[in-house]
Design a protein that fits this description.
Blueprint: E1 2-6, H1 14-24, E2 28-32, H2 42-51, H3 53-70, E3 74-77, H4 84-93, E4 99-103, E5 122-125, H5 128-136, E6 142-144, H6 161-168, E7 172-175, H7 180-191, E8 196-199, H8 222-231, E9 234-237, H9 249-257, E10 261-264, H10 269-272, E11 281-282, H11 285-296, H12 299-316, H13 319-329
Parallel strand pairs: 1-2, 1-3, 3-4, 4-5, 5-6, 7-8, 7-9, 9-10, 10-11
Helix pairs in contact: 2-3, 3-4, 6-8, 9-12
Pfam families: Glyco_trans_1_2
Protein name: Spore maturation protein CgeB
Domain Spore protein YkvP/CgeB glycosyl transferase-like: 183-327
Length: 330
């Protein structure tokens, strides 16, 4: 099948893994992002589309015609800010081609609600709460689609775990942008005496000075990410507050890598996990601290849980599984 994919080309992004997986499955993929129609760095282009409506519509008209020229059998969109004029032009010119949207983010990331203003043939999103809202309140053709892992990238490093753990020398690791909600929870861990190492970007608007000394000043991706997560004793994965009944992509990637994580309790995790949720989830920060203190000196148990999760997730929660579901529907 010839597929046009509209979204970011950044490494380790959702679109990167969709593209990689579709190609692996034998499809012809044409990946289109904003840089294909205008030579301006993404961050500037993104804000320009938000601030200048006419510029926004012109950019997405160009993108629409770029996709039409491909003559795809299916169009998959992932940007949340696609101007509805883009989808309208594509559908008017490719009348027999399904145009779908995959939104992997929490319910606070709909921007100006361009997704709802666009006539997609199908909408895929990860939280049953918003799926039901889209179906029952707006009458949209919406489907539940959890996050996933890419087993070609999210896998254990070929290294002895105990030796790597000694080399990495991290008790508890957290990674990603340290938004206020995340940093507030992490400073509670630090206050309790837990040794936490942070990878990623401090919050520039409201930096939490209490956690600054814990940053390793490194953004981790690829093999380095696998080494750090596999070699850390515990990964603290605190979900965004807008994950109403869903899990972040880290939950799946950590499992694929074989890391041992402690994360927020969500009922939906029962659907994903092989291991009983009480073994690794918390409802309060005090419970998180208690779990961390318990597992720090229990390497055998940590390894057992991590390996059981890894085997289960790489069988049931890959991008291949998700894309097979999508292709079956559309």
């Amino acid at each position: 099948m010839k597929i046009a994919l509209l979204g970011s080309k950044n490494f380790d992004s959702l679109e990167f893994h969709i593209n990689d997986t579709l190609v692996h499955m034998g499809h012809e993929v044409h990946h289109v992002d904003m840089s294909d129609v205008i030579n301006i760095p993404y961050k500037y282009n993104y804000w320009a589309t938000k601030l200048f409506p006419k510029y926004d519509s012109n950019i997405f008209k160009k993108i629409a015609h770029k996709i039409i020229s491909i003559q795809p059998d299916l169009v998959i969109c992932t940007y949340r800010f696609i101007n509805p004029i883009c989808i309208k032009i594509i559908k008017n010119n490719l009348k027999s081609t399904p145009v779908i949207h995959i939104n992997p983010d929490a319910v606070t990331t709909f921007g100006y609600q361009q997704i709802f203003a666009s006539e997609y043939d199908a909408y895929f999103t990860k939280d049953p709460f918003i799926v039901n809202f889209m179906k029952d309140k707006m009458g949209l053709n919406a489907f539940y689609l959890p996050e996933a892992l890419n087993s070609r990238y999210h896998k254990s490093p070929n290294k002895d775990r105990e030796i790597l753990e000694s080399e990495i020398n991290i008790d508890v690791v957290a990674f990603g942008t340290m938004y206020p909600y995340r940093s507030k929870m992490i400073d509670k861990l630090i206050d309790s005496g837990i040794n936490v190492s942070l990878f990623g970007v401090p919050d520039k608007r409201f930096p939490n000075q209490k956690i600054m000394k814990n940053f390793r000043n490194e953004y981790i991706t690829g093999e380095r990410k696998a080494d750090v997560l596999f070699g850390s004793k515990i990964i603290f994965n605190n979900f965004h507050y807008a994950e109403i009944n869903s899990a972040n992509v880290k939950f799946f990637e950590i499992a694929g890598i074989g890391g041992f994580q402690i994360c927020d309790y969500k009922p939906i995790l029962e659907e994903y996990s092989f291991v009983d949720l009480k073994e690794f989830t918390f409802k309060t920060i005090d419970q998180a601290i208690e779990l961390i203190r318990y597992y720090i000196d229990e390497p055998t148990l940590r390894y057992k849980i991590a390996f059981e999760q890894q085997a289960h997730f790489t069988l049931h929660h890959t991008y291949e599984k998700r894309l097979e579901q999508i292709l079956k529907i559309v």
